[in-house]
Amino acid sequence: MSKLDKDILKVFDKLEKLNPEAKFLSESALSNVTDHVDTGCMALNAIISGSLYGGVPMGRITGFSGPSAAGKTYIINKILANAQKKGMVPVIFDTEAAVDASSTTGVGLDNDQVKYVPVQTVEDCRNQISAFLDSVIESKMRDKFIISIDSLGNLASQKEVDDAEKGKSATDMGTRAKGLKSMMRLLTFKAAQAGVTILFSNHTYDDPSAMFPTLVKAQSGGKGPVYLASVLVQLAKRDEKHDASRGEDSDELLPEANKVSGTTLRALTVKNRFVPPFLECEAYLNFKRGLDLYSGLREMAVNHGVIEQTGSTFILPSGVDGVPGKKLGYYKNWKSDTDLWDTHILPNLEIQLKKQYSYSVDDSVEIETVVPKKDTKVKTKST
Fold first, then answer.
1. pLDDT greater at residue 64 or residue 21
2. What pTM did the predictor assign?
3. What residue ranges of the chain are covered by domains with CATH 3.40.50.300?
4. What does the alpha-carbon distance between residue 84 and residue 108 come to, in Å, rounded to a whole number?
5. Cα gap 189→209, rounded to integer Å
6. Could you say which DSSP state residue 277 is in?
7. CATH architecture of 297-383
8. What is the pLDDT of residues 282-304, one digit of tens each?
9. Spatial contact of 236 and 270, defined as CB atoms under 8 Å apart
């Protein structure tokens, strides 16, 4: 409840009658993200939401872009599976006719509770999602649904489809880009009203007009997805050979894969409305075991001073969590020490992330960190 003077509050009466959504910022459901959906990788959660235990913001639009086979679809499907665990219902809008029921089951999705909607054109996608969001708003079932669009880059305009059926070969990039921007403008506000989380994948390419290669790649479909998404994560990849230090057994390798056991994904937040952008991490995707929950945390802990690295060995600094300095040795010797991770590294890393990634004008505020796994709270005062 606002603490403003009653005479000031009366000034807003007419505005609130004209627009029922007009509320003070602390009271508005549209302006407050209260929960997140886990991505399946703690480091990725951190660069998106500022917390190891966060993830993609609910009720907002989050995009994953990158080249082919960069892990976009896998990560989105993993988020959908984690959303199901929270009681949400996934709705997949498939523009590529490429969704495979066995692959979605492999990441943990219950296909009996996933609505599948094939779409071909920008106009169909916009109209069908808009109608669905209207239905959710009318039902007042906030935070119950999550939508994925895979992918924006494959959507054609209706004009492009009509021309192709008439035998015309000319592309229609202008109308398509305008249509995508119009779709994103419409869906952004409606998704917030409905409390529906929207995920999309998109393709990236090097800008041919750039004099030098750029870190942030251009995306298919114009600037609409870039302008209107709340979070935009750009992915790159490199294939990894079998490495026993990651705990991989040789019999887990695919015999046809020439000893390539998985892919290391490099994630960069090129846009973020909740924490500072241009944060990056690495996540390891094993071809058989899936996304590694703990991948990227060692590097993140070193960067934030939670552990120290000297050559190939690591040290737990003195004073961390009241524990005297401790030599950890080589990473392979302590990577599976769950007590070390859960008791010392993760709680203190979470505190550092809150301090570094939160927008605050006061460095002396008390930070409370909640670790869901053990229902423990760690309090500290930053200095």
1. 64
2. 0.84
3. 35-295
4. 9
5. 33
6. S
7. 2-Layer Sandwich (3.30)
8. 999 887 788 889 999 999 999 99
9. no
